[in-house]
Amino acid sequence: MKKILMIGTGGTIASEVTQDGLAPELTSQQLLEHIPAISEICEVECIQLMNLDSTNITPNHWRLMARCLRDHYAAYDGFVITHGTDTMAYTAAALSYLVQGSPKPIILTGAQRPIGFDSTDSKINLTDSFRCATEDLPGVSIVFNNKVILGTRARKTHSKSFQAFSSINYPLLGVLRDGCLMRYIRQDCGAAPIFYDLLDTKVSLLKLIPGTDGELLNYVLQRSDAVIIESFGVGGLPSYEGTDFYSSVCAAMEQGKTVVLTTQVQNEGSDLLVYNVGHSLKERLGVLEAYDMTTEAVVAKLMWILGQTRDRREIERMFYMPVAHDILWRA
Ligand SMILES: NC(=O)C[C@H](N)C(=O)O
Q: Which residues are annotated as active site (predicted)?
């Protein structure tokens, strides 16, 4: 029987009703006690790394999770991390950069309703996740509502219903039907994973609205090593009286900061060269663009890259180099 490590981090799945709203209180061991049938699927050992609403998860917690995987990697056949859904897509992306090429499954799961509630999705999500953790499903993925989503492509797209996650600009890796995994895609992997530990957390995101105050961008640029600007459509920077976004970006890049343009539109990604509002940003300034990557993946990838280098060319090379199919290859 395969041996799986369950790593508890909190979330709704582990939450109980308190006077001040739901709060994570159950340990991984207590979660398992709700589903005795898991012992027919695999042998499980548990570690409780933290017990947090995922709103409170930070990049330091991603590093703790990656270290936990590294320290216990050899002893288990697969890993199930229980996590709040609110920032699970960020954690999945971060672990995809911190633990690359894993031949063993690293599954993140959680729930929209606590395990103690009559109408809960916790039990099916956990059972499906343990099934997937015993399969040939390399790399980091999210198993939720019968779907298997690649870690770099997940996004929370429903705040309440069980179908919380979607795969963005990439097909599902598989689905679960009556507890059986139908795998559509097998991720490539190495003989052993490469673990990373360093992250530069001075990465910020600015979402534009029509008429954004240019001083906001200056402020964010000042306080960050990299800024992601979530712009409109296929991407570009506005210009109107009283703002000079272009000069702000230019000055920040001269100081060695990294600027990435992405889009608020969920599907199909950016293409800065299409419109005049984006063209010179790309051609003359050389800002990076996200193309089909999710914002969650861009955030985590920049932290991972800047944890390793400050060289502009190297940053650009690493940014466009696909890791776990986070970006479609561009020749
Ligand atoms: N469904 C959930 O898990 C939401 C919860 N607030 C969390 O992210 O921890």
A: 12 (o-isoaspartyl threonine intermediate), 12, 85
* Half-sphere exposure in the Cβ direction for 102 (13 Å, CA): 30
55 flagged as catalytic: no
Contact 31, 8 (CB under 8 A): yes
pLDDT above 90 (res 330): no
Q: Is 54 annotated as a binding residue?
A: yes
DSSP H or E stretch at residue 72: helix 59-72
The full set of domains in the chain, from first to last, is 3-195 (3.40.50.1170), 203-320 (3.40.50.40)
Whole-angstrom Cα distance, residue 88 to residue 110?
8
Backbone angles phi, psi at 134, to 5 degrees: -95, 0
Please tell me the pTM assigned to this model: 0.98
Kindly report, residue by residue over 159-191, the tens digit of the pLDDT. 999 999 999 999 999 999 999 999 999 999 999
225 labeled binding residue: no
Distances (CA, A) of 112 to 97, 184, 280, 301: 26, 26, 44, 27
Q: pLDDT tens for residues 90-113?
A: 999 999 999 999 999 999 999 999
Q: Say how many Å lie between the CA of residue 147 and the centre of ligand 1.
A: 18
85 is an active site residue: yes
> 141 phi and psi, to 5 degrees?
-145, 165
Closest CA to 98 of 303, 330, 322, 311: 303
Q: What is the enclosing helix (H) or strand (E) of 59?
A: helix 59-72
> How far, in Å, is the centroid of ligand 1 from the Cα of 76?
27
Render pLDDT for 12-23 as a digit per residue (tens, 0 to 9). 999 999 999 999
